[in-house]
Write a structure and sequence with these properties.
- This protein has 19 helices and 26 strands.
- The protein is α/β, with parallel strands linked by helices.
- The protein has three domains: about 250 residues, TIM Barrel; about 230 residues, Rossmann fold (3-Layer(aba) Sandwich), CATH 3.40.50.300; about 140 residues, Jelly Rolls (Sandwich), CATH 2.60.120.
- The strands form five sheets. A seven-stranded parallel beta sheet has the order 7-4-3-2-1-9-8.
- A hairpin with a 5-residue loop joins strand 22 and strand 23.
Length: about 650
């Protein structure tokens, strides 16, 4: 979360700050400026404040509130240890009498023990406390430090009557709490709590911030300085000062940052790093994959299955970009989204989310080409999952050239709209590089949180049949460099042969799971039995897990076309590939989830000797009757220089 510039102005004005524990141990006449932060809401926001103070050489005390949601966050121990590593003191923001008054607890002392143990288990020392000014304090008339025996004084009726829940004298009668003359609190159920009945010393506590001696006390409670005066008008050159700053009131305008890149550039690793090591929300490929429904944003993935068709629908892209703008705004936090798809609509992103900052994540282009080819990009001549560069030469380009053209096009799209860069190779090799680059963007990386993330591997290719670029033959290297960096003159025009029909087993011989299905002489109809479970049907005699000695025989260096004639069927189309023994090798999705064309040609290049075709139902329409009227298989031999894998 961004911090307002006014806070840095305050630090510059007051000078070097110390902890409240330092103030507690000081003597009259010393010059001390003790900074205190009551963390009433967002611990990660407080941690960001702590980072900036650490950079500036300032120290503070952070009082953690045991009734706030962050107290039970799984990251709590790590965040607390990071506060300690920044050199700050950790204290307890006491709200036990509020819990007791609400009836949430009966044994106050036991709850104190639990809270202190929770913080001390983070390997931090806790010796100081301060009272939380809960709204219930004013409604029911109590101050949260009235439980400590050491703070009672000789005449609490005189010293405590009319103070605020913060423990200071105020002029506004709305914040003056009357002291109970019988020295006890009474709950609605008749239970009573004797004030001043619990020992601080017993629990290893040495001070309460409200009871320290100082010449000047400054407080931003309620979001302003009205209760104490404005410290920007104060003289901090002498005397002892306690400055209370609630981090919540110093939040800046949240940032929106899009990190754009070609695919396979480390975007998923970076999003995970940002989400776990900073106070920002790190998102990976959220935009274009969600729609808006009121204040909810359900997932509707369009990039991994049918990205090309989405790019042809400007209205849908606009709607999804507006959903992203609303979502990121409603989070009310800094948002850094790493997304390899939005570069294709970069100008629309700028128009619809004009306050977003764009960053170019740059990886060595030859490494990207190798990686996406190992992922099977452009194996088929019509790839509905991955975009083209829009050039006239695309349709006559081979697989390698298409991969190169995509990478160059993506990088050029991003470079046209931003000069901000993060370099992949430095990001993954130098632990200090990324924190400094993100800091330039106003995103703070916390060293302790980042330490274990640096060496993580995310989304690595499982199979890498294509070797590293320096092992390629000289011709392919020269060709690749020309397309990626040169004048793109080395186009290798491919002329494709015609498809011919392949003899196959009867396509209507099927196996299914969670399906009602019927066969006729001309069609196969089916519907799901249980709409809550995936339902599938496999054709050509094979099944989901084995070929059953059936399936479609395939030959190397062939492109196959599945001709599918349906009756407005809404299905996902898969190729199921089997090994030489008929066992399942892999399932490859061929057509999008919103596939509803009456007639379609679907292309694939099998990597095995046998494959079959399967249709999967998994949406709200799955119980409706679906019908396949015809299914034929065609094949054509690819020219030797289409498949990069064959060349290399």
């Amino acid at each position: 979360m961004s911090i307002r510039q006014e806070y840095f102005d305050l630090l510059a004005h007051v000078g070097n700050t110390s902890t409240i524990a330092t103030l507690s141990g000081s003597s009259v006449g010393e010059q001390i400026i003790a900074m205190r932060h009551d963390v009433d809401h967002d611990l990660e926001l407080a941690l960001e404040l702590a980072h900036y103070e650490w950079r500036l050489g300032c120290k503070s005390t952070y009082y953690l509130l045991h009734t706030e949601a962050y107290w039970n966050d799984p990251k709590f121990p790590l965040l607390v240890r990071q506060l300690k590593e920044y050199g700050h003191e950790i204290g307890l923001h006491v709200n036990f009498l509020t819990q007791w008054m609400r009836g949430e607890i009966d044994d106050v002392e036991l709850e104190i023990e639990r809270a202190l143990a929770h913080v001390r288990a983070c390997n931090v020392e806790v010796t100081g406390v301060c009272a939380h000014g809960d709204k219930l304090c004013y409604e029911n008339g109590f101050v949260n430090y009235w439980l400590w025996n050491e703070l009672r004084g000789d005449n609490p009726m005189e010293s405590e009557d009319g103070i605020s829940a913060e423990g200071i004298s105020v002029d506004n009668p709305n914040y003056q709490i009357p002291y109970p003359p019988n020295h006890e609190l009474v709950r609605e159920d008749g239970a009573k709590f004797p004030l001043w009945s619990i020992s601080m010393e017993k629990h290893g506590l040495t001070y309460d911030a409200a009871k320290l001696q100082q010449e000047h006390y400054w407080s931003d409670s309620g979001g302003s300085w009205v209760r104490s005066g404005d410290p920007m008008e104060g003289d901090f050159s002498q005397g002892r000062h306690q400055v209370l700053v609630h981090p919540w009131w110093w939040r800046g305008e949240p940032k929106k940052i899009f990190v754009m890149s070609p695919a396979r550039s480390g975007s998923k690793w970076l999003a995970n790093y940002i989400d776990k090591a900073t106070s920002a929300v790190g998102l990976h490929e959220w935009t274009l994959n969600h729609v808006r429904d009121g204040d909810e944003f359900p997932l509707d993935n369009r990039t991994t299955r049918e990205f090309v068709s989405l790019l042809g629908d400007a209205s849908e892209i606009t709607s999804r970009l507006r959903a992203a703008r609303a979502h990121h705004t409603l989070l009310k936090q800094d948002v850094v989204e790493c997304n390899v798809y939005v570069e294709a609509v970069a100008e629309m992103v700028q128009a619809i989310i004009p306050d977003a900052e764009i960053v170019h994540l740059k990886r060595e282009p030859t490494d990207i080409v190798r990686s996406i080819l190992n992922r099977g990009w452009y194996e088929v001549t019509q790839d509905h999952k991955h975009r083209s560069d829009g050039s006239k030469k695309w349709n006559s380009s081979n697989q390698l050239e298409r991969a190169c053209r995509y990478v160059r096009s993506a990088n050029e799209n991003i470079a046209a709209i931003t000069d901000n860069e993060i370099t992949f190779n430095k990001m993954v090799s130098d632990a200090d590089y990324l924190p400094e680059e993100l800091f330039k963007l106003g995103i703070v990386v916390h060293p302790l949180l980042a330490r274990e993330l640096f060496n993580e591997t995310v989304n690595k290719n499982k199979n890498e049949p294509i070797p590293s670029f320096d092992e390629w033959n000289e011709e392919d290297q020269e060709f690749t460099k020309n397309i990626l960096f040169g004048d793109m003159s080395m186009h290798k025009e491919i002329k494709f042969k015609s498809f011919k029909k392949v003899r196959t087993p009867n396509w209507k011989k099927t196996n299914a799971k969670n399906m009602h299905f019927t066969r006729s002489l001309k069609s196969v109809s089916f519907s799901a039995i249980d709409p809550e479970k995936p339902a599938y049907i496999v054709f050509f005699g094979a099944s989901w897990d084995t070929s059953n000695g059936m399936g479609i025989p395939s030959k190397p260096n062939r492109e196959y076309k599945i001709y599918l004639k349906t009756h407005e069927t809404s299905v996902r189309v898969f190729a199921v590939q089997y090994d030489d023994d008929g066992g399942l090798l892999e399932k490859i999705e061929l057509a999008p989830s919103h596939f509803n064309k009456v007639e379609s040609d679907i292309l694939l290049q099998p990597a095995t000797r046998f494959f079959s075709v399967a249709l999967l139902l998994e949406n709200q329409k799955s119980t409706q009757k679906q019908t396949v009227l015809k299914m034929d298989i065609f094949a054509r031999k690819l020219t030797p220089n289409y498949s990069t894998i064959a060349d290399l």
